[in-house]
Amino acid sequence: MSNITAPHGGVLKELIVPEAEAEQLKKEARDFASWDLTERQLWDIEMLLNGGFSPLDGFMGKADYDSVVKKMRLASGTVWTMPITLDVTEAFAEKIGAGKNIALRDPEGVLIAVIAVSDVWRPDKKDEALNVFKSDDVVHPGVNYLFNRAHPVYVGGKLKGVELPSHYDFKTLRNTPRDLREKFKKQGWHKVVAFQTRNPMHRAHQELTFRAAQMVESNLLIHPVVGMTKPGDIDHYSRIRCYEHLVKQYPEQTTMLSLLPLAMRMGGPREAVWHSIIRKNYGCTHFIVGRNHADPGKNSKGEEFYGPYDAQELLGSLQAEIGIQMVPFQEMVYVEERAQYFPADEIEKDMTVLNISGTEFRRRLMLGLDIPEWFSYSEVVNELRRTHPPRHKQGFTVFFTGLSGSGKSTIANALMVKLMESGGRPVTLLDGDLVRKNLSSELGFSREHRDLNIQRIGFVAGQITKNGGAAICAPIAPYAGTRKAVREEISKSGGFIEVHVATPIEVCEERDRKGLYAKARAGIIKEFTGISDPYEAPENAELVIDTRDCSPDEASQRIILKLEQMGFIK
Ligand code: PPS
User: Fold this and answer.
1) Is 385 helix (H, G, I), strand (E, B) or coil?
2) Is-catalytic flag, 199?
3) How far, in Å, is the centroid of ligand 1 from the Cα of 476?
4) pLDDT tens track of the chain, all 570 residues?
5) Looking at beta carbons, which pairs linking 174-179 to residues 24 or more positions away fall under 8 Å?
6) Mutate which of 476, 499, 547 for ligand 1 pocket (most atoms within 8 A of beta carbon)
7) Which residue in 144, 199, 254, 413 is the catalytic one?
8) What domains sit in the chain, N to C, each tagged with a CATH number?
């Protein structure tokens, strides 16, 4: 373990042990309890081991945690605003205790570090949310993670790092704090202002960062987060390719791009302070904070979680103590007459301001519409168009749900043929019966098995959609929660159209093509949907079809029209 002094005063606490000790630890760790790090824990541990979270020397113990939650300081009094905790399950907590060592591994079983446990406790998550995020509304991604994904028991203790988690992408852009400090030193960069981002950068961002650097006469570090960001954000692969284009637009020798392996919490003001401590650890002297830094969006009542300048205010009061200077920044807007960007507060009355909001930008991207050069460099837009093609080039899933005998399969087959006739996308039918013969042949009809069946169908449809195909699913899918989960997953990579085949049960039973209703009534078939098992009808299906007054031809035509209206068919 080594402590080196930062060029700007901070002590870097790197937690990787020397090679011989690491080899020894690998042998000893075979006898330790072993914990597979979750996705977020993997990002956190990378930042702990590489020194990005200095002065932390491990996952927080209870004293530091309590103090950070309540006072935004470690127990020692040093400013630190975000709890960094190792959450584990109750079952795992039973196997460990203070004084024990735990082997922390990545999903492939590679030993990343050993934690010497000092504390094990059950946090009051509501209290943590209210203090750290100023809210217990699960619309806040940080609160949602804490309540719905973080395990119930926290484990604190010092870390001995064996190796950093591995990454195979963009290797030359991944720099540890030590790497960056050395690079800055080598290039004679005395002052460095860092820019934090989780979005693709357009012209306004470039203007803003360039002006900030000019203002404080410093070099510029574009330091995008590539760990966890806000759900729904553009993937880091596309973003980085955009940054690579953009960084070429700055004057030579002024600007550097490097990736930050951080899992964000979207904690607004507290997060801005945390980000600035991290940037100081990476050797930066200045940090840009604009409007709504690390903003979680609106709450369930449609109100902002934080004020637009709360982050600037909090960091402003702590910057001297932290030892990094905040560069507060105004929004930049484009003035048509001048063909130039200006800070929003310098706009005069007779100026024509042009603006494209984030939502409007995404709409244009989605529909393949024009995006002007003043807004974004064409290389950046092309990159985004490549990974975010307009809807008519994206894949989609048509997900039928309805009772047995409602007509799902018949309409699904008609739709498949019509889509194949039009061409353009490969079409795959995942019919209920077909899936149960192949993918889910061992499953029965308990709630657990039905959910598993739908999850499998959802997984396959998701892969098809992601790769630009059309998936047609036609299971009963009786549970709303499972359908919602499938919708959320598939919508990330393409279209999702839910079709409720709402033929009433009396009609299905009357038809009884397979004789199953009669058997269900006689008790020969158990857990039969609609008879002895529940069916939760969808409330927000894109289409509702009743086959009493709609032929398969008409029904499939209605779906085609819907797909056209949504932009998936041109
Ligand atoms: S689920 O609930 O979505 O997993 O069901 P699914 O995979 O679509 O399977 C439904 C088909 O299985 C036959 N079948 C039953 N359905 C409902 N309940 C019970 N207990 C049951 N047992 C067998 C039935 O033929 C369903 O096919 P469809 O095409 O819907 O009539």
Assistant:
1) helix
2) yes
3) 6
4) 333 334 444 789 999 999 999 999 999 999 999 999 999 999 999 999 999 999 999 999 999 999 999 999 999 999 999 999 999 999 999 999 999 999 999 999 999 999 999 999 999 999 999 999 999 999 999 999 999 999 999 999 999 999 999 999 999 999 999 999 999 999 999 999 999 999 999 999 999 999 999 999 999 999 999 999 998 788 899 999 999 999 999 999 999 999 999 999 999 999 999 999 999 999 999 999 998 999 999 999 999 999 999 999 999 999 999 999 999 988 889 999 999 999 888 999 999 999 898 888 888 988 889 999 999 999 999 999 988 888 999 999 999 999 999 999 999 999 999 999 999 999 999 998 889 999 999 999 999 999 999 999 999 999 999 999 999 999 999 999 999 999 989 998 899 999 999 999 999 999 998 999 999 999 999 999 999 999 999 999 999 999 999 999 999 999 999 999 999 998
5) 174/258, 174/259, 174/261, 175/258, 175/259, 176/14, 176/50, 176/51, 176/52, 177/12, 177/14, 177/50, 177/51, 177/52, 177/54, 177/281, 177/282, 177/283, 178/4, 178/12, 178/14, 178/50, 178/51
6) 476
7) 199
8) 2-161 (3.10.400.10), 171-260+266-387 (3.40.50.620), 391-566 (3.40.50.300)
CB of 168 within 8 A of CB of 123?
no
Prediction pTM value: 0.79
Q: Alpha-carbon Rg of the chain, whole angstroms? A: 27
Residue in 78, 131, 197, 254 annotated catalytic: 197
Nearest residue (by CA) to ligand 1, atom 28, is 404
Of residues 105, 178, 181, 198, which has the active-site annotation? 198
Residue ranges lining ligand 1, Cβ < 6 Å: 404-405, 409, 432-433, 435-436, 445, 450, 453-454, 475-478, 514, 516, 525, 527-529, 533
Q: Is 355 an annotated catalytic residue?
A: no
Question: Rounded CA gap, 42 and 177, in Å?
Answer: 17
Residue 3 falls in the annotated catalytic set? no
